[in-house]
Amino acid sequence: MARLAFAFGHLGDSFHGSQVQPGLRTAQGELQRVLAELGFINKPTGPPQPCILASRTDAGVNVRMNVAAIDISAEYWDGMNEKGFINAVNDQLDGDIVVWAADRAPENWTPRRAESRSYRYRLESLDDWRDVDEDSFQQWLNIFVGKQDFRNFCRTDDVPDTVREVLEMKPWKSEIDGRIIGFEIRGRAFLWNMVRRIASALTGLAKGTMDIEEVRSALRNPLKKDLGLVPADWLILWEVEHLDVNLVSKARSSASNVSLSIPPDKAMNHRRFQRWTESARLEQKQICYNQWDSIMD
To answer: Which of 288, 294, 295 is nearest to 120 (CA)?
Structure first.
């Protein structure tokens, strides 16, 4: 047998999250169904699941890049290699999920031990978001960088340790006019709802309903203060990096920016902004489609 690592992406509103849930369509479940039908893995009959995922995502979260691992016959892999594997799997998958890279991994390798994970959140699509200058925004982002206790920025169900390290945060900017679309966050691991709660705090800072010391205090004094939670619709799992399996280089060699429509003035025309957000939901999908196409060309 050979341990195989492969990169895939999926659209958030087509699945009930990434992880297998009985009776629901999930990304892991769909991949396992197709892989079993092709004879690459045995049909799952219960835990542990034969397809291991690097990251778990909730329903509604779009995924540009996630990484999975399976054990496959070495004879199968040697006979088809990356291109054959990708073509075989994608021929059986629907268009809302796609496999776009694959490579043989070291024995017993697990995608859970990633060097880093990156997410992007599109703040401009939130009704409460207000435009800010880049210097102030970067100052807010820097608050969250480093190893800190994010108890006030996560759902803490059955989580014994809420300390995580954020490696980098930077503005996500439009390539059309340079406006701030949202932010990109990179860390080794994330807590449940962590990025969406950070996005909520940034929105509060932009709107003026929260000040910078209040946010800093929530990190210094993790006594479970609720700073809000924004929707999953505008979150994208952007990439997952591993040192011992290099799948991320394909994603980084593709165009990383996307052209997004400019939102109307919310204060002047709220109904028009509501219509724009529906269009923006389609753009979230188009981001993934364009990225997958450019990676696989």
So the answer is: 288
Which tens digits make up the pLDDT trace of 78-135? 999 999 999 999 999 998 999 999 999 999 999 999 999 999 999 999 989 999 999 9
Q: Enter the DSSP assignment of 21.
A: -
CA 20 to chain centre: 17
CA 174 to each of CA 13, 15, 90, 167, 278: distance values in angstroms, whole numbers, following the listed order? 24, 28, 31, 23, 19
What is the helix (H) or strand (E) element at residue 8, kind and residue range?
Answer: strand 2-10
Two structure tokens written together for 132: 């800010």
Cite the residue boundaries of each domain of the chain with CATH code 3.30.70.660: 116-234
CATH architecture of 116-234: 2-Layer Sandwich (3.30)
96 versus 225: the higher-pLDDT residue is 96
Give Cα 232 to chain centroid, integer Å. Answer: 10
Dihedral angle sign, alpha carbons of residues 203, 208, 210, 215:
positive
Q: What is the location of CATH 3.30.70.580 in the chain?
A: 2-104
> What is the C-alpha to C-alpha distance for residues 27 and 173, in angstroms, rounded to an integer?
29
Indicate which residues carry an active-site annotation. Answer: 58
Closest CA to 38 of 77, 96, 95, 78: 77
- Predicted TM-score (pTM) of the model is 0.92
- Specify whether the CB–CB gap between 227 and 204 falls below 8 A: yes
> To which H or E segment does residue 97 belong?
strand 97-104
DSSP label of 230: -
Pick the CATH number of 2-104 from 3.10.580.10, 3.30.70.580, 3.30.365.10, 3.40.50.300: 3.30.70.580
Find the largest Cα–Cα distance for the chain: 63
